[in-house]
Specification:
Distance between the termini: 127 Å
Order of helices and strands: HHEEEEHHEEHEHH
Strand content: 5-15%
Radius of gyration: 44 Å
Largest sheet: 4 strands, antiparallel
Number of strands: 7
Low-confidence stretches: 118-135, 218-226
Mean pLDDT: 79
Helix content: 55-70%
Structural class: alpha+beta
Length: 292
């Protein structure tokens, strides 16, 4: 009898131990599940926060896109409306017409003509409306306001050189310089080589001279701030070095070349100062200039 009771007690004790072990396993599993749930919950929170940020970004981008679309529609309406592209084109044409008028005044102030005979001059455009490109003429056959610009004094200056011829050339260069200044101001083109107009005693500036300066010149040409001053070259011969004067004429022709390139025309060459000026004025006064 006692043995049976002991056996039953042992069986129940074993079952109780098994139940305890199962309970511990279940507790361990529940603990792991609780940790996983917490991790999953935190991950969900992070994803929700990222999602909210993305939603806000999308809202901001949508607002910006809506504003951009509105501005695009307004721009399209302006282009299509009465103050649109047609208006801008009309204003551009009026500006060109105004430039033509101002340049025509320059051509009246400083007419460049071709010398036909010993005492006869003729305009390069003899007939109104004839705007075909003329062949480059000899520099010596052109005059500006009745004065010829001869190259001889610049190459063979001596004590016996005709002083009046030198003065006439300086005056002619002053005319060209003034005409270039006027045209550049009307076209709103800053000259690469700025001019200091002084009539027949005009100068032209070069910010990068080809001649090597001496040490004294270098020190005198540097300001306190360290900026190099432009070097001036005379557009006249009296009392000047012929090489510097010839270089000044070369720079003046470069300014004319710059203006010609601005309106889409090629220069006639470095030895055609008056011809380049005439070509510049002729091109601007042509009907095709209004539509370019």
């Amino acid at each position: 009898m006692f043995g049976q009771v002991k056996a039953v007690s042992m069986s129940q004790s074993n079952e109780l131990d098994e139940m305890r072990q199962k309970l511990e396993v279940k507790k361990l599993v529940m603990g792991n599940m609780s940790v996983h749930c917490k991790v999953a919950a935190e991950d969900v929170k992070k994803k929700e926060e990222n999602l909210r940020i993305e939603v806000r970004s999308l809202l901001v981008a949508g607002t910006a896109l809506s504003m951009a679309r509105k501005q695009s529609q307004e721009s399209n309406s302006l282009l299509i409306g009465e103050r649109g592209y047609a208006h801008l084109k009309n204003m551009h044409r009026k500006l060109r017409m105004r430039q033509q008028y101002m340049i025509s005044q320059v051509s009246l102030l400083y007419p460049v003509k071709i010398l036909v005979g010993p005492a006869e001059e003729q305009e390069l455009e003899s007939f109104p409306g004839n705007f075909t490109r003329s062949k480059p003429v000899n520099q010596g056959s052109l005059t500006i306001l009745g004065l010829r610009l001869t190259v001889l004094p610049f190459t063979k200056m001596s004590f016996f050189t005709d002083k009046k011829e030198v003065q006439r050339s300086s005056t002619a260069l002053g005319y060209v310089a003034h005409a270039v200044l006027l045209v550049s101001s009307y076209l709103k083109v800053p000259l690469r080589y700025p001019l200091r107009f002084g009539g027949s005693r005009s100068y032209i500036n070069d910010y990068a001279p080809s001649t090597e300066p001496t040490l004294s010149d270098y020190l005198s040409d540097i300001t306190v701030s360290g900026n190099v001053k432009p070097v001036e070259f005379p557009l006249f011969l009296e009392g000047q070095d012929t090489t510097r004067a010839a270089y000044a004429v070369f720079l003046l022709n470069k300014d004319l070349e710059q203006l010609l390139n601005f309106i889409g025309v090629k220069s006639l060459g470095p030895r055609h100062l008056l011809a380049n000026l005439k070509e510049l004025i002729r091109t601007i006064q042509s009907p095709n200039y209004l539509d370019t």
